[in-house]
Design brief:
Blueprint: E1 3-11, H1 15-30, H2 37-59, H3 63-66, H4 72-82, H5 94-108, H6 123-132, H7 139-143, H8 146-167, H9 172-175, E2 179-187
Antiparallel strand pairs: 1-2
Amino acid sequence: MNHIRHEETSRDSLFKDIEQNLEAIYALWGGGNIGLRFSIAILCAVKLEAFINVAGKLKLEHWDILERKLSFEEKCRMVFSTSGLAFDRNVEPNRSAIRMFEIRNALVHPKMKLDRIDEHISQDEYERRSIAFTGVLHPLRSELTRELVTHLKSTSDAFVSQWGPKLLDGAPDYWLTGGSTGGFTHEPPSEG
C-alpha cells in the first residue's frame, strides 16, 4: 500500500486587509472627506501592529501571550533584538511610528475637553460672542493636520518597507498574506 504524507504550513494575517482598508480610506480622505483623518491615524497604527505581530509570531515563542502585555515600542525592541537588530526610537521611521501609537491611543481612548467661562459681560459682548463662538476644540482636531496625516501614512509604509525584509526572513510579501505551502509526497510502505 502506498502512503502519502501531507505536510503543510498555513498562515493568515489581516495585514493585507488592513492595508487595503487604509488605502481606500486614505483615498476618500484625499478626495475631501476630512473627518476620515481620525480613521487613517488609527489604521496606520493597526497596520504597524499587524506587521510587528507577524514578525513576533515568527521570531518568538509564546508571542500570543507576550504581545498582549507590551507596548508597540516594547514589541519592536523584542522582535528586533531576536533578529539581531537594534531598535532606535530616535530615528525615522521608528520615531514617527511610536508617535503614531500615542495618537492612536488618544483616539481609541477619547477624552472629552471642557471649557468653562464664568464672567460678567455686557449684552453687546454676549451677542458678539454668541455669533462668533467656536466652542472648545479638542487638541486632536488641530493636531491631525493634512501634513501630519500624510506623514503618518508614509511612515506606516516606510516602516514596513524598511523592516519587512529584515524581520520577516526576507519575504514580507509571503508572510503578510494568507495562504499555505507544502504538498504531498509518496512514502514507501513501512515494514512491520
